UniProtKB/TrEMBL annotation:
<dbReference type="GO" id="GO:0048040">
    <property type="term" value="F:UDP-glucuronate decarboxylase activity"/>
</dbReference>
<keyword id="KW-0325">Glycoprotein</keyword>
<keyword id="KW-0812">Transmembrane</keyword>
<keyword id="KW-0456">Lyase</keyword>
<dbReference type="Pfam" id="PF01370">
    <property type="entry name" value="Epimerase"/>
</dbReference>
<keyword id="KW-0472">Membrane</keyword>
<keyword id="KW-0413">Isomerase</keyword>
<keyword id="KW-0333">Golgi apparatus</keyword>
<dbReference type="GO" id="GO:0005737">
    <property type="term" value="C:cytoplasm"/>
</dbReference>
<dbReference type="GO" id="GO:0070403">
    <property type="term" value="F:NAD+ binding"/>
</dbReference>
<feature type="domain" description="NAD-dependent epimerase/dehydratase">
    <location>
        <begin position="22"/>
        <end position="263"/>
    </location>
</feature>
<keyword id="KW-1133">Transmembrane helix</keyword>
<protein>
    <submittedName>
        <fullName>UDP-glucose 4-epimerase</fullName>
        <ecNumber>5.1.3.2</ecNumber>
    </submittedName>
</protein>
<dbReference type="GO" id="GO:0042732">
    <property type="term" value="P:D-xylose metabolic process"/>
</dbReference>
<keyword id="KW-0735">Signal-anchor</keyword>
<dbReference type="InterPro" id="IPR001509">
    <property type="entry name" value="Epimerase_deHydtase"/>
</dbReference>
<keyword id="KW-0210">Decarboxylase</keyword>
């Protein structure tokens, strides 16, 4: 777990009474973009995060914003009394809190499961007390290694409950079940987004996800790692499209009794992604193959008909454009990290 940072600044500035969003996991990759988008919309944000997988720099741009406040907290633990006292002012509760890449969520599988189940329950309780709407960021991993392609929301999945990915996959499935139970019982209005692979600035260069891995390896001139033969497929959604989809889902006037897939249906092999990264970075680095991780899905493509129909949402950013922006961001990050590392060594 990361050390306390200057982001954890105690009572913080006063928050406007209207449209107060609690964003759990708001210091992470997608969460930091969501916090910014909500502030740009004129709303207030209370970001709740234990900084387990986030980079403090993700929130630097938001620090000092009069409608932004950070509270360091692990959602698997009872919520701070100060937060529960704020319930009458809370209008939306977003749950993005969970390590999302396999190496990170497998570091402490029990904690990953507790974050998803106990943490989601804490936030649902808060939403109920606040009479606020609740959104859970679930995942395409609820479909496991799918036998149906592309994956629509009514597909029940092909998930191992005994393997190393189960803490995340089954944790998210349990979180969905809890959310829908609250919704069915009329305790709170729920929205469940099933997110497919998302990429963009603010990703952790070391999180082990395929886009960040390949781009950072290429930029550093390191060997490029492909797991398996690279014929497995993925569909990559740029983060601004994802945030637009999440916000549309939260605000949509729907009954919320069904999950909604959010992702980009443009499917490609990992080898094709590699080709894009090689062309973009011009690296001459060698490609090395490593064994496929256990239970790694072979194919992944969202059927986004429901999101299209109920939200009028579809991704807009083409891969070439999104990869270029991501690559430029990683290049700046790696360049900024260099002098600090050199200074430390010296
Ligand atoms: N990025 C993707 O491709 C993707 C795909 C599917 C689902 N999702 C889901 O979207 C959400 C955000 O993912 P991301 O890519 O931004 O990941 P991320 O790791 O960058 O962000 C997750 C954030 O949650 C925080 N967190 C983790 N456990 C916590 C806990 N117990 N209490 C408080 N904070 C905690 C982390 O510190 C981090 O800031 C996650 O729930 C993830 O499962 C992401």
């Amino acid at each position: 777990m990361r050390k306390q940072t200057d982001l954890d600044h105690g009572p913080g500035p006063t928050i406007r009474p209207l449209a107060l969003n609690v964003v759990a996991g708001g210091a992470g990759f997608i969460g930091s973009h969501l916090c910014r988008a909500l502030l740009e919309k004129g709303e207030s944000v209370l970001c709740l995060d234990n900084l387990q997988t986030s980079r403090a720099s993700n929130l630097r741009a938001l620090e000092g914003h009069p409608r932004f406040r950070f509270m360091r907290h692990d959602i698997s633990q009872p919520l701070p009394a100060e937060l529960t006292r704020m319930a009458p002012r809370i209008t939306r509760v977003w749950n993005l809190a969970c390590a999302a890449s396999p190496p990170l969520y497998q570091q402490n599988p029990e904690h990953t499961m507790m974050t998803n189940v106990v943490g989601t329950n804490h936030l649902l309780h808060l939403a109920e007390a606040a009479k606020a709407r609740f959104l859970l960021t679930s995942t395409s991993e609820v479909y496991g290694d799918p036998e149906i392609h592309p994956q629509a929301e009514d597909y029940r999945g092909h998930v191992s409950c005994t393997g190393p990915r189960a803490c995340y996959d089954e944790g998210k499935r349990a979180a969905e079940a809890l959310a829908f139970d609250y919704g069915r019982a009329g305790r709170t209005q729920v929205r469940v987004a099933r997110i497919f692979n998302t990429y963009g600035p603010n990703m952790d260069p070391n999180d082990g996800r395929v886009v960040s891995n390949l781009i950072c390896q290429a930029l550093r001139g390191d060997e490029l790692t492909i797991y398996g033969d690279g014929s497995q497929t993925r569909s990559f959604c740029y983060v601004s499209d994802m945030v637009a989809g999440l916000m549309a889902l939260m605000e949509a006037d729907i009954d919320g009794s069904d999950p909604v897939n959010l992702g980009n249906p443009d499917e490609m092999t990992v080898n094709e992604l590699l080709g894009h990264v090689l062309a973009l970075t011009g690296t001459a680095a060698r490609v090395v193959h490593r064994p496929l991780p256990v239970d790694d899905p072979r194919r992944r493509r969202p059927d986004i008909s429901r999101a299209n129909e109920v939200l009028g949402w579809a991704p807009k950013v083409p891969l070439a454009e999104g990869l270029e922006a991501t690559c430029a961001w990683f290049a700046a990050e790696l360049a900024a990290a260099k002098p600090a590392a050199a200074g430390f060594a010296g």
